[in-house]
Amino acid sequence: MIKWHNKIYSIVSMVILVAIVISAFLVVRFLVRVINNSFMVDQQVIAKQMISFNRSAWEQVKARLSGQTISTLQPAPVPIPEIPTNESATNTNTNQPVVTDSKPAQVQSESNQNSNVNLPAPEPVPSPVPPPPPDPRSLKLKLLNASGIKGRAAEVKTILEAKGFVTQSIGNATINNAPVTILQLKADKEAYSQLLKNALASTYPIARQETLPANSDVEAVVLVGRK
């Protein structure tokens, strides 16, 4: 009995489900038909309005055109200017006096007079004067023996004094085996660099140059090396 009840219940459920699906399909189909009918009605109304508007506009244009005459539609004649003949042109030219312009001749004569005028010669531009060489006697010079060989600083002092330099002090450096001679010079005394190099070129040539501190008591220091 229980099995028969279950079969009957399943059959009834399926029948109800099919009925619901069919009802939903019919409702959707009805709604689609209603929407299409309303859309077609709107299109027909719009088409009728357009036809009536075009017909009324054409009637107005037709009435305006029928009221105009043929004379108003024709363009106005264009006046044609008269062209003078050769005889009239020659007569007018012969009757008028010929006027000559003397201004170009006057301008040419004035230009000739201006060309004969002697213009002043340009002033020569003076060439720049090179600055005078610095005075070696004004340099505060110090000599230090850095070679470890006794008497080298005194030898360099004699050489530089022969070139006009004045040595303020002489002594020994903290190093005693420098292979070359070194020049220490303040930045604002760069003009004395070449003078010192030329003075020692044949005996103790300066191989390297360094910048001396600005707060130094002297302006230049020569570290005499072995050569």
Explain this structure.
This protein has 227 residues and is of the alpha/beta class. Among the domains are: 1-60; 136-224, Alpha-Beta Plaits. Helices cover 49% and strands 12% of the residues. It contains six helices and five strands. The protein has a five-stranded mixed beta sheet, covered by helices on one side. The longest helix is centred in the N-terminal third of the chain and has 66 residues, at 2-67. It is elongated, with a radius of gyration of 61 Å. Residues 69-73 have low confidence and may be disordered.
Level-2 CATH architecture of one domain:
2-Layer Sandwich
Shape: elongated
Determine the CATH topology of one domain: Alpha-Beta Plaits
Q: Which CATH class of one domain?
A: Alpha Beta
Number of distinct beta strands: 5
In short:
By secondary structure, the chain is of the alpha/beta class.
Helices, strands, pairings?
Blueprint: H1 2-67, H2 70-73, H3 86-95, H4 103-116, E1 141-145, H5 152-162, E2 167-172, E3 181-185, H6 193-199, E4 206-211, E5 220-224
What characteristics describe this protein?
227 residues; alpha/beta; Alpha-Beta Plaits; 5-stranded mixed β-sheet; 12% strand
